[in-house]
UniProtKB/TrEMBL annotation:
Domain TRNA-binding: 40-148
InterPro entries associated with the record: B3/B4_tRNA-bd (IPR005146), NA-bd_OB-fold (IPR012340), Phe-tRNA-ligase_IIc_bsu (IPR045060), Phe-tRNA-ligase_IIc_bsu_bact (IPR004532), Phe-tRNA_synthase-like_B3/B4 (IPR020825), tRNA-bd_dom (IPR002547), tRNA_bind_bactPheRS (IPR033714), tRNA_synthase_B5-dom (IPR005147)
Organism field: marine sediment metagenome
Record keyword Isomerase present: no
One Gene Ontology molecular-function label: phenylalanine-tRNA ligase activity
A GO cellular-component term linked to this record: phenylalanine-tRNA ligase complex
Domain B5 stretches: 402-453
Gene Ontology BP term (one): phenylalanyl-tRNA aminoacylation
Keywords: Aminoacyl-tRNA synthetase, ATP-binding, Cytoplasm, Ligase, Magnesium, Metal-binding, Nucleotide-binding, Protein biosynthesis, RNA-binding, tRNA-binding
Keyword tRNA-binding: yes
PANTHER family tied to this protein: PHENYLALANINE--TRNA LIGASE BETA SUBUNIT, PHENYLALANYL-TRNA SYNTHETASE BETA CHAIN AND LEUCINE-RICH REPEAT-CONTAINING PROTEIN 47
UniProt-recorded name of the protein: Phenylalanine--tRNA ligase beta subunit
Localization terms from the record: Cytoplasm
Amino acid sequence: MRVSLDWLQDYIDTSDISADELAEKLDLSGTEVENIIKQGAGLDNIVVAQIKKIKPHPNADKLVLCDTFDGKETSQIVCGAKNMKEGDKVALTKPGAKLPNGMEIKKAKIRGESSSGMLASEIELGFGEDASGVMIIDEKLKPGQALDKALDLSDTILELEITPNRPDLMSMIGMAREIGAILGRDFKIPSIKIKESDKAATDVAKVDIKDADLNPRYIAKMITGVKVDESPQWMKKRLLAAGARPINNLVDITNYVLFETGQPLHAFDYDLLEGGQIIVRRAKAKEQMTTLDDVERKLETDNLVIADKKKAVALAGVMGGARTEVNDKTQNVLLESAYFKPQNIGKTSRSLGLISESSIRFERGIDPNNTDYAADRAAQLMQGVAGGTVLKGSVDVYPKPIKERKLKMRPARANSVLGIDLPAKKMEKTLSSLKLDVSLSNKELKVSVPTFR
């Protein structure tokens, strides 16, 4: 688990504590900090530049010569991309720069023409998946600015080892809650404000759970009229800090909310779902499906799948299917937020050799009563970032709600077992700081354990 300290400030203020101090406090509380990373440190000699003139290469039809201004001087760069035009702001990697993939930039002659660096693509800079051309950046940025400063890439990241019994820590909000308890500070979560249409989600989407023992809760939310595009820079930055590569705004939003809340989500292209229906069932004998990695999978009958009226379209809790994935033409999204039985997801993930950020969280156990918040949060972002219209309400199938566990604890007994002498009031305060509902009466603590634990 990677925790961006810059992102963390959205939920709790730790600006007065150094990364080393925070790491020490986490270590002492039982959450091991494996590494502290200074992000942006590997982007030396990469600056914002402006293309002043583009000329044909005299000796190569597929190359061009770009006169590029870096704030001080204009240099010639040989480039093979076709997506830029004169006046564009780009990322110029100067001689001496070393890219995240290990490539070292040097002055060179390419087909007889000198090149004083390289105009880099997103994938070469480690900022995304786009390798189709050079990365075009905000026209408001000034030539000569260091790229990490111009794009606000500087950050400190804590790499944590999360033990299997603490799935509640596998999110930014979960870590904010934990750090709040350690520091004795309040934390906050984003408020949800969505402008919904008059049309209801239940009018267009249907959910049928055939195996409720493996899928106790399934929420489908509908967002229509979305525009697929690249994500805003602030979202890209946070996904990169979390260890994920930006893909497009819809996919990025589902990943963003996963890292923020701990709830895995999946976005289906609604128009590619046969009958506009979700059916949650076990795989049929000899059933096959192609997953998002373009691998055809042979399924077993104990694998849980998400299907439409025709066939399986996703491996529940593990990976989506290629047939219904969002693409450049997607306009309408059915957003899945669900709770699946941990043991089944773990077995499916291991049997197929598919380990994902989603499967890890489902296998360890997520909060079944957080699925609605995560769905609303993603819908809020899809409305704001992708221009979608959110249909009223959602399809929420939850036949047997999972409730909080009630426990009793005797402070005297706890002190005897632990060999300490902690007052009952202190125990009550400590448990309450972890957002457990605690009451003390007749020398006994009554504790309601929330479903996120």
